[in-house]
Amino acid sequence: MAGSNEFSPRDLLESSPELSSRQSSPASTVQAEEEVDVQELDIDHGVNKIEWEDVKVYLEDNNLDYFFRLPSVMKKYSEDGVVMKATYGSVAGKLKALLKWEDFIAKGNLFSHQEDFKFTYNNYPYAWEDGVVHLVVWCKFALPDDPETGRIAGYVSGAIEKLLAIKCANHKDELLWWRNPPHLKSVPELEHFHILLRNPSAEFLTELNPVKG
Length: 213
Fold this sequence. Notes:
The protein is of the alpha+beta class.
């Protein structure tokens, strides 16, 4: 969830000595503000979202770099990051508050203790097609890689598949998951993996009860 440097037409007006030295009439000021509002509303206009079938291909080929976020989501992430640092001091502090964990010390291995992992909604999802819900599972324990392949170890994948077969049994045909490699982890402080659900029912989400950030 890497941030980006955002600036709007309002920034241009304020940063330009030539433009800022001119006195604007009330009417022109209102018009300028309306134009900025419209451009902010249209910030995602023309961006093609990632289709479900394409996600399958990217995951199969391990092309996770093809995932991207909408400009509006990147803007929100950047803005929220400032508030987060001021409020919690760090990402770890934010996660402890969100997950209601005092520490990140696991009681057992993988998914042997319910207290060691939690489902949350992803507040900054990638640009998925409409109807896709993006969840994150945060883990106090490690999810080791296979040293030969560089991808998540087979026994870890098996444990995740078993967990999801239990937790998401009625949506197994409309479910995808993956764990980002180190260079794509926007939150390296705590182990986690991602889940996508296509058109999950409200009843299912209520039962699963992911934490809302």
